[in-house]
Automatic annotation (TrEMBL):
GO BP term (any one): base-excision repair
Protein name: Adenine DNA glycosylase
Top-level taxonomy: Bacteria, Pseudomonadati, Pseudomonadota, Betaproteobacteria, Nitrosomonadales
Example of a GO MF term: purine-specific mismatch base pair DNA N-glycosylase activity
Alphabetical list of InterPro entries matching this protein: A/G_AdeGlyc_MutY (IPR005760), DNA_glycosylase (IPR011257), Endonuclease-III-like_CS2 (IPR004036), Endonuclease3_FeS-loop_motif (IPR003651), HhH-GPD_domain (IPR003265), HhH_base_excis_C (IPR023170), MIG/MutY (IPR044298), MutY_C (IPR029119)
Species the sequence originates in: Nitrosospira multiformis
Length: 383
């Protein structure tokens, strides 16, 4: 099998026919976002499925739809409400972009989801592959997808070496994806493009998996170069190892009358628009730091240090539990915090766990709430 744009019609037909038949017999047909042409639902599922597995997405997808059943309800919701429904699913820029895109669809497209793949691609948070998937499943468009699973299948089948995140490798894989698309005039099968696209997704998720590919059950095995050459385990070429820079930060769990202090993060940057614990440099003096916020605190305890890995760096987190002894009049008081647009809030830990918080903050809170002793000490001291 030759790669890139040189794929012959017979190879292209082999792929389409094998994949479509396999999907109809062995693929997934009852996922909550299947069997619909509702572009809103298709779009929501495709965004949630970016970098996230089906099993994780399903409960979030259902809950999100209950809260925001259509474009209008999503566009008119506050960002906080949207983030709260997304909380725990990770990659929060997806939720911010979803909200922004819903507002744009209302204002620029009269509330109707655009049909053209090129127009879909201009929506915030929608890349080339996601736009194609929405176009296929919502409108039956003939467009090629190339998500992580599909890159893996093509790298193996066509023996493409090189890390798929590199531009020249990705370009080659896109050429393959385009060349393999079933042609409309040669494909009399009803819904062929939907089944072909779903087949690629299902094959990558269930057969041609990263760690344990089941080549014995794979419909593409007769033409697969990696299988023939016994190099399935080394393709696709892994991301070149690079040592992530490391940073440190202290997260402050400030407690007053059983409630904890949360700060809204700016919308740009890590954990954008999420509620987080106040953060400071590890070498700063925590008492002085809190004085600047207008609160006088005492250090109750230090929790276990742990690491959280972002794409570009590793963050070592030092959680500190602090108790408020007194506060300057008006500073961070419930009255001051009830002002609209306020970036601070006191919340009961159990309510904070339901809010839009990043996963490391969730971890700190869960650890804190599981320790009954500190809670009792604090509650007594508050009275
Ligand atoms: S034969 Fe194996 S490596 Fe090749 S596509 Fe199928 S599962 Fe993947």
């Amino acid at each position: 099998m030759s790669a890139g744009g040189d794929i012959s019609d017979s190879i292209s037909n082999f792929f389409a026919i094998r994949l479509i038949h396999w999907q109809r017999q062995h693929g997934r047909h009852h996922l909550p976002w299947q069997n619909t042409r509702d572009a809103y639902r298709v779009w929501l599922s495709e965004i949630m499925l970016q970098q996230t597995q089906v099993g994780t997405v399903i409960p979030y997808y259902r809950r999100f739809l209950q809260c925001f059943p259509d474009m209008q309800s999503l566009a008119s919701a506050s960002l906080d409400e949207v983030m709260a429904q997304w909380s725990g699913l990770g990659y929060y820029s997806r939720a911010r972009n979803l909200h922004k895109a819903a507002q744009r669809i209302m204002s620029e497209h009269g509330g109707t989801f655009p049909e053209q793949v090129e127009v879909i691609r201009q929506l915030p948070g929608v890349g080339r592959s996601t736009a194609a998937a929405i176009g296929v499943f919502a409108f039956g468009k003939r467009a090629a997808i190339l998500d992580g699973n599909v890159k893996r299948i093509f790298s193996r089948c066509f023996g493409i070496e090189g890390y798929p995140g590199e531009k020249h490798v990705e370009t080659q894989l896109w050429q393959i994806a385009e060349a393999l698309l079933p042609k409309r005039d040669e494909s009399p099968i009803e819904r062929d493009i939907e089944d072909y696209t779903q087949a690629l997704m299902d094959l990558g998720a269930t057969i041609c998996t990263r760690a344990h590919p089941r080549c014995g059950s794979c419909p593409l095995r007769p033409e697969c170069i990696a299988f023939r050459d016994n190099c399935v385990g080394s393709l696709p070429t892994p991301r070149p190892r690079k040592i992530l820079p490391e940073r440190e930060a202290a997260l402050l769990l400030v407690v007053a009358q059983g409630k904890i202090l949360l700060e809204k993060r700016p919308s740009a940057g890590i954990w954008g628009a999420l509620w987080s614990l106040p953060e400071m440099q590890v070498n700063e003096n925590v008492i002085e730091y809190c004085m600047q916020l207008g609160i006088n605190v005492r250090l109750i305890s230090r929790m276990e240090v742990f690491a959280h890995t972002f794409t570009h760096f590793k963050l070592w987190i030092y959680p500190l539990i602090l108790q408020v002894i007194s506060r300057s009049p008006g500073h961070l008081s419930p009255e001051a915090l009830s002002q609209p647009g306020n970036q601070w809030v006191w919340m009961m830990p159990e309510d904070a766990l339901k809010a839009a918080i990043p996963s490391p903050v969730r971890k700190v809170l869960l650890q804190y709430t599981s320790q009954t002793e500190p809670l009792e000490i604090l509650a007594m001291a508050d009275n």
